């Protein structure tokens, strides 16, 4: 797609678009599905800055390429009429507000995290997060693989096999291997839409406050590890920011030992109560590990692949999007990633649902999201925090 270089030919300026994404990143609650809905309502239907075709192309690219869905769509919409500068400014405006929020929450968490009242609050919040993620897994499974109907399952049985395999493997081993996602994607591509080269060669393969929270404390070697780990994770986030959880849970808690299970769950909770992309939880995790520098490196590691993999194919995407081999490869990886997400939720739940009360909070959260229309996650998190505090303080 060719970008429009003269601002007079568009209905809006780059400053106006940047201001919109700054606002969306500040007050846009509800997760990736809600955020992409806001963009369509505001930019396509109300302001008419973006055409329906441009929006659909951006959404298709966001679903095909790795990267958090809402952030990648925002970057693409910035690129449509203002090229790389548009993509850069809209991406930064969208991510920056929530990044600053999670850093501030990380500072508070380091100061108060050891106090009983803070632990009581996150007791309820952690259980509610399990409920939210469980329901999100269900919806993501239906969207990414198929509906749970005999005919649909039969037609996409191989994807369901990948899904179940990765769910079981993740639940048992409590870790994920990137090579396995790539392998399953490659297998599905070979089965469903082998590329031409494979068909020809079938055998080939405050100063005091800041100091007290460790704001400026970091180890250079640790920053390198953070950067490499989060860049790897960011390169395999397909469809939803929640898909990054298996990578984070296995690496941050199990492999690297940067956080314990409760701290990791609290990090996910922080992402739920802040606006903007859910994947911004990496900023909170990075801050707990290595202060502000760790937060910045972790966020850059996740969002840089998202930016590059949106901007580079954007001019050629109409042709790329029709390539059935690429679609099949991504479908295979997506099914495996969603399966791993389900497995990781099982692992986290077995460690976080510790009694009847926490199980009830998780169950009530799921039922509330199903039966109460337009109920947003931050309200559930707030209610769960109050309930958790009451249970731990008075019972």
Detail the topology: elements first, then pairings.
Blueprint: H1 14-27, H2 31-46, H3 52-64, H4 69-112, H5 116-144, H6 150-155, H7 157-173, H8 178-192, H9 196-200, H10 207-212, H11 220-234, H12 245-255, H13 261-273, H14 281-311, H15 317-320, H16 324-352, H17 356-371, H18 377-394
Unreliable residue runs: 1-8
Taking all Cα atoms into account, the compactness measure Rg is 21 Å
Structural class: mainly alpha
How far is the first residue's CA from the last residue's CA? 61 Å
Q: Percentage of helical residues? A: over 70%
Describe, in plain words, how this protein is organized in 3D:
- The protein has 395 residues and is mostly helical.
- The chain is 76% helix and 0% strand.
- It contains 18 helices and no strands.
- The chain has helices at residues 14-27, 31-46, 52-64, 69-112, 116-144, 150-155, 157-173, 178-192, 196-200, 207-212, 220-234, 245-255, 261-273, 281-311, 317-320, 324-352, 356-371, 377-394.
- Helix 5 packs antiparallel against helix 18 (377-394), helix 7 (157-173) runs parallel beside helix 16 (324-352) and helix 12 (245-255) crosses helix 16.
- The termini are far apart.
- Residues 1-8 have low confidence and may be disordered.
């Amino acid at each position: 797609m060719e970008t429009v270089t003269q601002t007079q030919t568009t209905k809006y300026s780059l400053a106006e678009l940047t201001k919109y994404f700054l606002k969306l990143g500040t007050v846009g609650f509800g997760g990736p599905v809600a955020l992409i809905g806001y963009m369509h309502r505001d930019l396509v239907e109300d302001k008419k800055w973006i055409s329906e075709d441009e929006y659909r192309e951006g959404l298709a690219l966001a679903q095909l390429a790795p990267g958090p869905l809402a952030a990648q769509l925002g970057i693409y919409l910035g690129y449509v009429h203002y090229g790389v500068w548009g993509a850069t400014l809209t991406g930064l405006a969208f991510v920056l507000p929530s990044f600053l929020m999670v850093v501030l929450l990380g500072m508070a968490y380091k100061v108060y995290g050891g106090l009983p009242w803070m632990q009581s609050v996150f007791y309820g919040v952690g259980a509610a997060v399990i409920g939210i993620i469980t329901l999100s897994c269900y919806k993501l499974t239906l969207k990414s693989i198929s509906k749970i109907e005999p005919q649909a399952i039969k037609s996409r049985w191989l994807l369901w096999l990948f899904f179940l395999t990765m769910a079981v493997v993740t639940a048992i081993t409590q870790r994920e291997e990137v090579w396995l996602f790539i392998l399953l994607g490659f297998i599905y591509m070979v089965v469903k839409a082998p590329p031409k080269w494979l068909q020809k060669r079938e055998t080939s393969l405050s100063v005091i406050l800041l100091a007290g929270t460790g704001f400026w404390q970091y180890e250079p070697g640790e920053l390198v590890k953070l950067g490499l780990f989060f860049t790897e994770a960011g390169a395999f986030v397909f469809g939803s920011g929640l898909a990054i959880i298996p990578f984070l849970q296995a690496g941050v808690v199990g492999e690297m030992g940067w956080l314990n299970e409760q701290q990791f769950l609290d990090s996910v909770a922080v992402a739920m109560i802040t606006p903007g992309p859910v994947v911004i939880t990496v900023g909170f995790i990075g801050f707990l590990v290595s202060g502000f520098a760790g937060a910045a490196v972790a966020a850059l590691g996740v969002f840089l692949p998202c930016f590059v993999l949106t901007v580079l194919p954007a001019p050629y995407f109409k042709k790329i999007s029709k390539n059935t081999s690429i679609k099949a490869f991504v479908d295979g990886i997506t099914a495996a990633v969603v399966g791993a997400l389900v497995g990781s939720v099982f692992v986290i739940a077995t460690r976080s649902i510790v009694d009847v009360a926490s199980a009830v909070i998780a169950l009530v959260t799921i039922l509330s999201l199903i039966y109460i229309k337009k109920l947003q996650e931050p309200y559930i998190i707030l209610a769960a925090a109050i309930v958790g505090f009451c249970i731990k303080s008075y019972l």
